Structure prediction request, 968 residues.
Amino acid sequence: MTATLPRPSLTSPTGVGAGAAVAFHDVTKQFAGHRALTGLDLELQPGELVAVLGPSGCGKTTALRSLAGLEDVTSGRITIDGRDVVGVPTHRRDVGMVFQAYSLFPHLTVRQNVEFGLRMRRVDKAARATRAGEMLDLVGLGDLGERYAHQLSGGQQQRVALARALVTRPRVLLLDEPLSALDAKVRVQLRDEIRRIQRELSITTLFVTHDQEEALAVADRVAVMRAGSIEQVGTPEELYSAPATAFVAEFVGTSNRVSGEVIGTLVRLAGCPEVPVVGTPDEGPVWAYVRPEDVSFVEQGGLAGVVESVSFLGAVCRTRVRVDRETLLVLDHRADERREPGVPVRVSFTPARVAVTTRAS
Amino acid sequence: MVTTSTRAADTTADARSAHEGDGGGQPTRASSSSDGVGPSRGRRRPAAWWGLTPFALWVLAFLIVPCLLALGTGFVDGDGAPTLDNLAALGDPLIVRAFASSAAVSAVTAVAGAVVGAVVCWGLTSLRPDGAVRSAIDAASSVLAQFGGVMLAFAFIATIGIQGVVTRLLIDVAGVDLYADGVWFYQVPGLLLPYLYFQVPLMVITFMPAVSGLRPQWSEAVATLGGTRWQHLVRVVVPVLAPAFVGSLLLLFANAFSSYATAAALISQGAQIVPLQIRAALISETVLGRENVAGALALGMVVVMAVLMTGYSLLQRRTERWQR
Amino acid sequence: MSARTTGAPRSTTAGGAGTVARRTALVVVGALFAVPIAAMVAFSLRSADGTGHDLNHWLAIVDPENERMYRNLVEGVTNSLLLAVVSALLVLVLLVPAMVLVHLRHPRLVRPLEFVCLVPITVPAIVLVVGLAPVYSVVSRVAGSGAWTLALAYGVTVLPYAYRAVQSDLAATDLRTLTEAARTLGSSWPRTMALVVVPSLRRGLLAAAFITVAVVLGEFTIASLLNRVNLQTALVQVSRSDPYAAVILALISLAFAFVLLLVIGRVGALGAARPIPTRKALS
Prediction:
């Protein structure tokens, strides 16, 4: 699959207007037996791509489906451009949705699939054909219009699904783990294209995923969810370098959890020089989260340990160093600094700043 | 019904045969031989022939040969000389009428069975797929679809026969005499209800996989695309289910067309439908050489069945493609 | 799949009409289908003068005085049971090894085998019997005209269904890997068949056996047109003199088939996810 797609002009009919503002206000969803959403509050600015990230069962899919109208909410409001849509049936909400898999109609060609939404809106045949054609070009499938879903690869099917969702110029685009069923390489390619298309069309987008790398790569802002509510919302950089809670610190990227003590605006980590701390936590014992790329080998000082295992990951080498019975540190470093397993080493922490959470001592 | 999983087996078989070649002609390989037998080629034959030869002989004697005989006797006369007289006998108005009656009964029960069966399938979607009620209904369908034809006849004799429970009930309670204008029960019309009794379960068994294969994502996608439930029904459900429906319909038609036992049990004399014509031809003691007419009739039946089953399997293929 | 952790089933299929409408449809059709069975029961309990209900007809069956009338029936039942067992054995001993062999060693024969096993669908029993008559005149000369020889023909008529039952199991189990593993661990072919293949295919084998038994017990066409006595031909004969007995026996057979189905279902041969191939009814 070639990478570059033709770029339609922004003034072409495929260009949608600025997306809508979306907001969840204290949304709760109770199923028989468990509560999927607990007081969810989230705002999406027009044209923004917000990724909702979390483990299975955290409620992210429920949140998306509530916005689509495929689930009712027990309480709370969901507004699109200020208008509460709770109670409005799905087919009147004017949202576009891409499902994880199996959503293309098998008895229709690709073109007919894409035209479906236009058909529902009684757009005439010629206009349907034109708009569908343009949208297929936008997603790079211009010459596959007469194929059927079962003749396409997974990545191609999702492109069709995307074209189908976008052709009706919805105000909001919902993506329910659209890449999870695809191969790794296709996944990366397609997420970049989704991002590009989303930017071009300036459509407000909610992107649900359990893959944190995907979320960080694609989104303007990321909301990390857990057990029905949001733990933290912020730009990918904020989430990565300033996680607000232990869960976020450990879910987003890899962290070394190290004990330390906050003194003033610095935190002292075991055996290392003091480091500036993120935010203004209270003084006292804390857990600090240090990223693997901020841990390095030193000749003297720092902590003593023994190399336990080494993995070559291509761009970096990831070494696990056992410091004591409870502490296994993960370092990312260049391949030329490789140490072999069993070798004693000394490591130190060198982050610009570090996020902490209180620790019961 | 029978063509589904064999397709999967087929693709893997093709992949395998590309990998290892056929059974007998492969040169010996030291390792990585995927059948694990020792290196000598000669040792492979006995095992293979052990398993296949008995089966082949059995099938030859009791399937292939009888088929050929059944189809072939239509072309010879009582002395074994080739003739087209038997085929010409098929043009006999009585026999033509028998084919027409068979077709009529089959068509009516197929359509009625398909519609009612489809309704039952629709009803079944409201049940949990792994629940107790659903399992019970699946079991009941299997049992009813295999209910021996003779016993089915008795069941309906007990129900709407001349002394049947429902017959009497109607007379006593509603004053309605089912047989006021004649006893139709022991004629061709009497076959309709019994046939329905096995057509509906057969439809449920054959059609349900297609109904279960309707993905919830489709109805949700239609909703997000601005379509109402009605549009989902008309533009997605009906077109997607159509091949499976028609395929099952063909199967039901073939099923009724080839049924013998119920008709034999209910209609003890006469040959109003094709299977009964074959009976008459086989057991007739008065007209010599009638067995060969049976052969011609058999040929006629097989032609009809072959057309139906081909249509069925073509439609099945399309249904499965969409269920992937 | 987007994780939907709800407990209730989502019936988002056709029409989206309410659960109530669907359940009503099921109940209505179910009631209609129960009518003949209820009628059979009521019919069999009808008293001799036609007004009340009693168990006379049921008792008459076991009454030794009527033994002569039912002799044919006893012969039919015995024959059918024997035929069921022999047919099931034939299918398991002849068809299954052939299928396994073709699956493992001769993949190019899969198509021909499948075709052969599908022929009995296009060639129904009523047609097949036309060609079986001459074959069986030979068989009678060789092996006598006992009813058990019908098993050879019966096995053939159930081929499509037995094949399908075993095939779906075969396709789902990676038999090739299992047998290769067994072979590399030092097991001979006979032991592999017994210890690996048969247990792995247990479900399909049981389903095939059940279908064979069900078909054989209900078979009428071939037995009747080849002048043999089996359960169904005996039933027809009984029904001419005593329709009540015929109905009662039909009820018993139905109950038996249902119980058999439940038992096999418990043993795990018929899961909801694996629809068994069923025989188109009768003939």
